[in-house]
Amino acid sequence: MPTREKIQTSSHVHLKGIVLGFNLSSIGSVEGVLVETANGPEQVNFQQHEVEALARSITVGANVDLSVTFDSDAGDHRVYRYAPDEFEITGRVVRMNYAPHGVVDGYFLEDGTFLYVSPEDARVHRVCLHEYIKATGTKRQGVQGPVLEVRTIERMERLGKRHDENGVSTKGEFA
After folding, report:
1. CB 22 within 8 A of CB 60
2. Residue-wise over 3-39: b if at least 16 C-beta within 10 A, else e?
3. Residue 31 lies in a domain
4. Number of Cα atoms under 13 Å in the Cβ half of residue 34
5. Do 79 and 27 touch, CB atoms closer than 8 A?
6. pLDDT tens readout for residues 44-91
């Protein structure tokens, strides 16, 4: 196997090239693509929730420019993980979203964007209905509209009612 220079593993890079084909799982589901780049073939794996939309938007032979992070070079070629660029959005929270066990795991903004946060992060941030917030994270298209997997949240206005760890409104000022 040829020797390759070491690459930085923690930052996003753009991988440009021509799609050679899709990599499939043992049951035939798309898991990623093989891209011919200036450095030879490179593999990009997709996260499970991104596969369907990406597989529909990419065709064999197409020129692509994918935002990726390095994963491994232990095999026949370098392997990357698809890592969409970060987005920033501001908006007013109009509804909470709840995990199957009833705790808050996200917020809907007035424009229809869904902000996904872990239940643990929701308990820490304690965002209220009607608050105006700014969030950053990676964006993808969900079934009912855009989804932002939140990395940071910042309150722009402290309005609305406080909610407890289960998302139930409580009386009193925001803590």
Report:
1. yes
2. eeeeeeeeeeeebebebeebbeeeeeebbbbbbeeee
3. yes
4. 9
5. no
6. 999 887 788 788 888 999 999 998 989 998 889 999 998 877 889 999
What pTM was estimated for this model as a whole? 0.58
CATH number at residue 40: 2.40.50.140
Mean pLDDT, range 7-26, rounded to an integer: 82
Q: Which two tokens stand for residue 124?
A: 């820490």
Nearest Cα residue to 22 out of 35, 13, 37, 12: 35
How big is the chain, counted in residues?
Answer: 175
Residues 18 and 36 in one domain: yes
- DSSP code for 142: -
Percent of the chain surpassing pLDDT 70: 83
